[in-house]
Amino acid sequence: MKQMIRVALPKGRLGESVYKIFSEIGYGCPEILEDSRKLIFENEESGVCYFWAKPSDVAIYVEHGAADVGVAGLDILLEQEPDVFELLDLGLGKCRMAVAGKKDALSRTGRTLRVATKFPNITKNYYTEQSREIEIIKLNGSIELAPIVNLSDVIVDLVETGKTLKENELEVLEEITQISARLIVNKASFRFKNEQIEEMCDKMRRQIDGTKKDMNL
């Protein structure tokens, strides 16, 4: 008898896109699409159990074994540094982590650079590699506002189209890394449910590769 694989899905459009992939490769659970207040959705026939979680919490559920696998953005993995295995780049939710600000913001050398961000660990690691002295200002929303009102010199944030930056006379000054959604797994689960998880991962990889070919990517 198959052991149940517990899957943590991020709430929102990304999670819906990921569930679609799971459904297409044989891990569907129609109940999850119903208008319901249920928190956990099981399909014993497919051997899978789903639950929705806040995107920033998915890696926590996986790290602590409440979920066997989950889907989290690389930004969250780099920021939280959870003790999990990363199995697959799903190629979804693509954007980039970047330094942005006014055009000449990085030309002011010789003093501490003030950086506003939702991602203090990513920011600290990036500037430590550059041996640049910085002051991190932790914010939770409207990061673009910080350099406009002179709270910071620059920001470190996710950039998708850059439209918001442009409309506020800001621009990408440096790119830190490309970001996309990743399939992650609990380390103990990967050991004890290895065959099932590897099978799931292989099916997802083939599905994603097939989609890329269909789109001529």
Quick description:
With 217 residues, the protein is an alpha/beta fold. It is built from 8 helices and 11 strands. The strands form 2 sheets. Strands 2-3-1-4-11-5 form a 6-stranded mixed sheet. It has a 5-stranded mixed sheet with strand order 8-7-9-6-10.
Write the layout of secondary structure elements.
Layout: E1 5-10, H1 13-24, E2 40-43, E3 48-53, H2 58-63, E4 69-73, H3 74-80, E5 85-89, E6 95-101, E7 113-117, H4 120-129, E8 134-138, H5 145-148, E9 154-159, H6 163-167, E10 171-179, E11 181-185, H7 187-192, H8 194-214
Parallel strand pairs: 1-3, 1-4, 7-8, 7-9
Antiparallel strand pairs: 2-3, 4-11, 5-11, 6-9, 6-10
Structural features:
11 strands, alpha/beta, six-stranded mixed β-sheet, five-stranded mixed β-sheet, about 220 residues, 8 helices, elongated
Determine the number of helices (DSSP H or I, runs of at least 4 residues): 8
Note the beta-strand portion: 25-35%
* Dominant shape: elongated
Number of strands: 11
Quick check: average pLDDT?
93
- State the end-to-end CA separation: 39 Å
The biggest sheet, with number of strands, parallel, antiparallel or mixed sense and barrel status, is: 6 strands, mixed
Query: Could you tell me the radius of gyration in angstroms?
Result: 20 Å
Structural class: alpha/beta
Low-confidence runs of at least 5 consecutive residues: none
Q: List the helices and strands in order.
A: EHEEHEHEEEHEHEHEEHH
